[in-house]
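Board work, copied verbatim: Putative cation/H+ exchanger
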Amino acid sequence: MQTGFSVSRSLLGYFEGVITLFYNPRGILAVETISNLGIMYYVFLSGLEMNSDTILRSRKKGTSMAIAGIVTSMLFGVGFLTLQQKLLDKKEKTHIKAYLFWCLTLSVTGFPVLARILAKLKLLYTKLGKDTLTAAMLTDAYGWVLFTLLIPAANNWGEGYYLSVITTFLFIAFCFTVVRPILTPIIENRTNKNMWRKSHMLDVFIGLFICSYITDFLGTHPIVGAFVFGLILPHGKFADMVMEMSDDFVTGILCPVYFSGFGFKLDLPVLWNTPNSVLMMLIMVLLCIPKVLSSLIVTFFFGMPARDGLSIGLLLNTKGVMAVILQNVAWDKRFLDPCSFMVMTLAIILMTVIVSPLINAIYKPKFRFMQSQLRTVQKLRFDMELRVVACVHNAKHATNIIHVLEATNATRISPVHVSAVHLLELTRHGTAILVSQMADLNNIAGAETTNYGPKAEFEIITTAFKEFVEQYNAVRFDTSSVVSSYTTIHEDIYNVAEEKRASLILLPFHKEYSTVGGSPEISHNEHCEINENVLQHAPCSVGIFVDRGLGSLLKTKMRIITLFIGGPDDREALSIAWRMAGHSGTQLHVVRIHLLGKAAEEKVLKKKISKSPHGMLSTVMDGVMQKELDEEYIFSFRHKAVNNNDSIVYLEKEVHSDTGEEIPTLLNEIDKPGYDLYIVGQGSGKNKTIFSKLLEWCDHPELGVIGDILASTSFGTHSSVLIVQQYMVGRKRVVYKCHNEMKNSPEVL
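↓ predict structure ↓
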């Protein structure tokens, strides 16, 4: 659109020869054909993303917001257009078709655009985001119904109009009741057997053209047929495949031609040169009010805060492709005069552009993680519920983390609540995942969720956790998905952890190891960055799980070992191990490593310690306090656990050298008996000189020194490892450098 606007009469097109250069009359037909094909394919993909079943199951609140927004916008739209026409002092009467297009443009909401704005603002999985997304999806669906009714009116207002509308809806009903049941089993059978090839996409395109041609022949727009054809095709794996094959070509090549043509029609001087141009600009701003007003009324009726009503109204003002198409049709049919066209077009742009900064100012999403209560496993009593957020990228991760959760010793006195979160990357055409979640936004714990995106993957994850819960009566679970950009998905994880009041976030290590030999088979560097980001400001404790074939407690006993050097992370690791030791199928070994002599020397952080004696004194006092807390916790553990449980073994080892060579040797000695699971603290002895030297050679500094050694293939262990970081108020932020970069110590901020 910006490209088309830049060569329009408003800018470069003002100079003679520019328009002829970019829009040669001999090529107009070809450009129009490509642009129409582009928008037709785009609408087809939009229909393929949507789920009609989800729309039919929508709840009262979302339906009320959608209907109120449409009705209010249309009523205000009539008044604003009448006022605008009077300000223009037009003598001829405005046609009713102009009112219809103007009002419908004002009432629609761009669901895909809104979904991405909510994902960017990290409001997608909040109550506000869920309510807004539901209302937007319904508004989008109702918009398509009204569009189907409006286009025949634009082409033929009379007896032919009713015939066109009736036959169009009969055709849509035929597609859903006859064509869909025939195509669905055929397509799903081919998809499940991996029989689809790129050449078979021709069949899809032929069906698209047939539906588009029929709706065009019946008197409505071709894109109605394209949208319906996308809507009746099966979702899940097939939809993912079609979008993956055609997304780049459609959204990257064809659609820009359509939008650039729309931008070319913009003519700003028309607005400036009209009488009462200032009032025209005021009308443009006032067009933002109807949605906000209707949302405030509905939210007040449902007892929601006025701030939520204001925010939902602003978000529902977001416009998308539908608004552009309506404006284009109204311009081509000459229903709107140039001034009315410009006022509405600029209002569309204004509504969409101002949403993000205004919502940011109202909610300040980036700062809402600052106020977190202290949530750690160590602070939980043994008669309290352990709440865990288990993040997975695939079904294999789910199985691995379930094996860890089996050992958490869930009982009726000390139950476990697991919130399984499937992490998915938000791509340019990933709205299908968001749409299909709408029926699941208010799902109850343990309920099956609606299929979305990678359908089979999520079904396997849900089934795995359901079977886990069936084996352990004291475990509750709920499953959901987080669809966001990988660069900011950690903030969504924070959201889930805060909403669920979790004490622990479990993350899979970014490398998947072979169960035979222990060598890494697959490495996902983008997952590494997610783990590093989560560690920065997590609202609770975090555990990174390195799996080397940890078995299920239902089939075998589990030998667990915890290495305790000192510090909050080691205390948190011991707390988790202590809880696991209560399970009848576990054996716990705790090895406390004493750093003596030169090995106990503290590392002096010159950058962060003030030159005054108060800075050094504060550091020394903190070290003394941590030692006291370590001694107190170890004493409590030995008194309450070791002396009362024969399955717990407690040992102590000593390290004297500060060269760092003694640590790997000691770990090799400890590993000789063979264990199933190591549980270690991420920041074990991080202030000691001996560990600062070893940290410089770490491949994965986010695991800490001990965790990195145990996770290394050169160490030779076949044990799985759980690395734990305890949540602490005022904890220093550590910026880890990616493992595949040069090996340097992390930078402490």
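The first strand starts at residue 386 and ends at 392.
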